[in-house]
Amino acid sequence: MVNKSFIDNPDNVFYDIFLKWLNEETIKKISFDLDEPSRILNHRLQSLKVFYEIKKPSFWPDISSIDFDNLVYYAKPKKWFTGAADSRDKVPQNIKNIFQRLNIPEAEQQFLAWVWWQFDSSVVYHKLKEKRQKSWIIFDDISVAIREHWDLVQKYFMKLVPPTDHQFAALHGAVWSGGTFVYIPKWVKISDPLQAYFRMNTYEWGQFEHTLIILEDETSCSYIEWCSAPKYDKRSLHAGCVEIFVWKNSSMRYTSVENRSLNTFNLNTKRALVEENSHMEWIWGNLGSWATMLYPCSILKWDNSTSDNLSLVVASTNQHQDVWTKVIHIWKNTSSNTISKSISKSWWVNTYRWLIQIQPGAENAVASTRCDALLLDEISISDTIPVIEIKTDDATVSHEATAWKIDENQLFYLMSRWLTEEKAMAMIVNGFISSITKELPLEYAWELNHLIQMEMENSIG
User: Fold this and answer.
1) Where are the chain's structural domains?
2) Do 74 and 29 touch, CB atoms closer than 8 A?
3) pTM of the model
4) Which residues contact 243 (CB under 8 A, 6 or more apart)?
5) What residues have CB less than 8 Å from 164, skipping those under 6 apart?
6) Other beta carbons less than 10 A from residue 135's beta carbon
7) pLDDT 10s digit of each residue in the chain, 461 long?
8) Which end of the chain is more exposed for a tag (fewer CB within 10 A), N or C?
9) How many CB atoms lie under 10 A from the CB of residue 168?
């Protein structure tokens, strides 16, 4: 047993608990504060051992400036020892002010099945609509779910993304905290989306939320995630993990918009297992972050399983966006469609990789990939690196990649209609990304367009 007196209590307006240093003692402190069973602590300690033993992939962007011993691995806001509030009125005003400044759309919240706020390591607010509570849906902090629904959670937790997957999966397995657990029981179909906001707010911070979503047979669900972080002069690290299980005759849509500051390393591993006659849809937009390593993957495990992947990535000054969409076709009559849009400016780099793997049993598989890159100047870089592995004679696979610059004739035409050069460029860019933004709820599409317009300022040179 570890005594709570070990936990640092800095003179800080937000936090009661503040843990640095990557070692076994820090991990024991995290596990103790979360009141975890010993089997989870053992999993954490084993993951830490793997982290020190495993090598990072050679293709990753340069991450040598991360100081693992000086990151904050766990920070709990004051007054949250008893769990998340079920009313915004109960959220401390200083924390509530931060979320209000994020421009969380009030009108959209009226139509959500739940709203979820995570501030650094802790869930500070969540509320599930009463009609959803009556549907036997489980929605909770993943730490609470481990204690209260262990028989269910243990079948899935870090099974799709094990600590041995890569170096940061091991780090995540050691120090994760916060995140959502969603369980949709058989025959329950949710028409209103579920939503979570994740805020990194601490200086030299590491955030490691874990999202676990399980859809039983004959279900449907839509989940929206919004992530942000402030700007500091020290590097921060986000190493989250998403595991999604979509069982027979079910449909899952996962939407994510990440807008982290340029001091952040963002590595997010997302993976879905898709069963017979089921569909997985990934929609995500990524702005911000000094270096991004984002790898969503769909495993089409059984007959007639399908996947769509729609992504938008923006690389501006001092950014390297490295994203890799993976689809693995295992069984018969599976199909996947991947569309990626990337925008590069100010000499920085977009690298888009995709892996299409057709296994020997995946007869009549169909896979389509398309990557469109828009370069806004003469010095930016956009790389497309396809990997296609076909291990059956009966498959249809197509891939296409394009790279282009703003058409001067289009720009001239729009400016002749009394648009400024900047607004004309923004209109062209919005047309370029429309296939992605049209899939978002209205207010989130507007917000994403607004963020991109801010990125486009001073892009003409």
Assistant:
1) 4-302, 407-461
2) yes
3) 0.83
4) 156, 157, 158, 159, 160, 161, 210, 211, 212, 213, 271, 272
5) 50, 54, 170
6) 15
7) 333 333 333 434 455 556 778 899 999 999 998 889 999 999 999 999 999 998 777 766 777 778 888 888 887 766 544 445 455 555 555 555 545 554 554 544 444 434 444 544 445 444 554 555 556 788 888 888 898 899 999 999 999 999 999 999 999 999 998 888 999 999 999 877 787 776 655 545 677 889 999 999 999 999 888 765 444 445 678 888 999 999 999 999 998 877 766 677 888 899 999 999 999 999 887 776 777 788 899 999 999 999 999 888 776 666 677 777 899 999 999 999 998 888 877 656 667 778 899 999 999 999 999 888 888 777 777 778 888 999 998 999 998 888 777 777 877 878 888 887 777 777 777 777 777 777 666 556 655 666 666 655 555 44
8) N
9) 26
CB atoms closer than 10 angstroms to residue 378: 8
Q: What is the 3-state secondary structure (H, E, C) of 394-423?
A: CEEEEEEEEEEECCHHHHHHHHCCCCCHHH
* Euclidean distance between CA atoms 190 and 133, whole angstroms: 12
> Pairing relation of β-strands 236-246 and 206-207?
parallel
Q: What are the helix and strand counts (H, E) for the chain? A: 11, 22
Question: Which residue matches tokens 């859809």?
Answer: 215
Q: What are the b/e assignments for 24-33, b being 16+ CB within 10 Å?
A: eebbbbbbbb
